[in-house]
Structures are given as C-alpha cells and as structure tokens.
Amino acid sequence: MSSSPAVLPPAVRKGATVGVVAPAGPINPGRFRRGLALLGDAFTLRVATDIARSDGYLAGTDDERAAELDRMLRDPDVRAILVARGGYGIMRLLPRLDAAALRADPKPIVGFSDATALLAWAERAGVRGIHGPVISQLGDLPAADVATLIQRLTSPEPAGRVPWRLQPTGAPRPAGPDDGAITGTLRGGNLTLLSHLVGTPWQVEAAGAVLLLEEVGEKPYALDRYLTHLHLAGALAGAAGAIVGDLTRCTDPPRAAGAPDDDRQAHAVLDERLRAFGVPGARGAPVGHGKRNAALPWGARVTLHGDGTLELHDAAVA
To answer: Active-site positions?
Structure first.
C-alpha cells in the first residue's frame, strides 16, 4: 500500500490556466459563480463546458465526470485542477482515472471533503495535491483563506510556522524536546472517506503520517465507528499524530438549520478514540466545512509543535 515518491508539480504562475471540474455532486450556480469571481484576478479559469449538469445526487454520469477530469489532466495548458464542490461521487471514478496522465504532466489537484479520495489517488500516482477549499465554498470564506490557496498554488517556498494555537487531543505526546513535537507527512481529510478507502488501492498510508481529520453532518457515534474501523483494519498503524479540524454539525440530535453548532461531543469522541489508539494530536485547525478552510499541501513534511503551532517544511509546488 506504499505510495510512489511524491513529485511536486510546477508552481502555477499568476494568470496561468486553471481547470475547474465537478467530479462529485451538482453545483449550486450562485455559490459557484461567487467562488469563481474570487480567483479570476489570479488565474485564467477554464470551466468544464457542461459543469452545471445534474444526475440526481451526482454532477452527471460517471462517464461524463471521468471524461471531464481526464480532459483537464491531459490538457497541457491547464496547470492546476480545482474541484467545484464536494458531495459524493469521486470514489466511483477512481478506477477510471489514468494515473499515467498525471505523472506525465504533474499539476496540483485542489479539493477536500469528497475530494479526499482524489487527493489519495493523486498521491498513489506520485503527485502532491492540496487539501483546500472547493470553488463553491470560496465565497463563504475569509479573504485570508482565498489568499492562502493562491499562495499554495503559486509559491514554491515552504510556509514555515502557521500561526495557529491548536489544543491537545488524543494520547499524551511522547517525551522529548519542544514538549513532544510531532513530525510526519501530512495526509488525510474527511474521516468518512478515510474509512471508506480502506481496502482499496487508494487507502491512505498512516505510517509516519500526521493525519488531518475533519467531518460534517455525522453523528458522534458515526465518528466513533469510522475511527474504530480505521484502527481495527490496521489503517492507523504507525501514525505519528493527528490534527483535528472542523467537526461541523456532528451532533445528535441534528441541529435545526441555522441553529448554533456545538462540536463539544464530537471532539470528545475523537479525543477518546485517539487516546485509546495511542495517537497524539491537536484540535482546532481552521480546516473543513466550517467558517475557515486553510489550504494545506498533502504529502508535505510537517511538525506539530508543543505550543500548538503547525510548521510546514515543504511547499505544495516546486
């Protein structure tokens, strides 16, 4: 299940062509247009011709969605690929995608949530991706998160320490300098997808990894189920640590639309499960389905310091 050595795709220059695809659920046109507008000054956006199509809970048939992504992978003018929205559907496409096309012309793929599967596919192909906002989310994020996404795509310089102040969660950190700093390879994303990828060729490698975990709309017992499944399947073996992002609307009973969220029970579940499995970590990363979604380079070497800051040793692009 080991991944190929990661190739850093070339940095995307300002004004270069960036492809936008909808490989999962159908877009909301208004939210999608607002997101596109925030990137139009940085890049030339090549939006798939029939991106507004819909086939139930999918943005078109498997053939349509796979062909759209394949065209962007093979187009030499397209220097990065951004996912329009999450939902469901990308796992259905993985066997259809040509990893050789990405290896022949490396370009960063950006997405999160259901796109966790696509980032795992890219890593198996040997090319680093970016765990970051989808287009339809950009209009709801602060300008700083949009700027961070652009920086991750365009700058080959490692970001260094990110000024977060994360709180401890899970197992106690190992003794050592820097209050037990944890260093590893950043991988992960949506907890449901990480669980469902187990046993597939795109299972996310936990050994030596700092696993990023986020979720939306799952009850606390389901979070328990997914993490327990990962543990029982051996899919957490060798994990250096974990970074927990947003656990949005993960309540029981579910919160009414517009009601204030309460993530305390969800975080308590992850804390207990990570502690039981011997995985130390930190929570509170502004990543996921909440009000923030900071882009992070999948496959980068990172250190989670004892003061709650995260240090990125590698960039997403070269």
So the answer is: 113, 214, 289
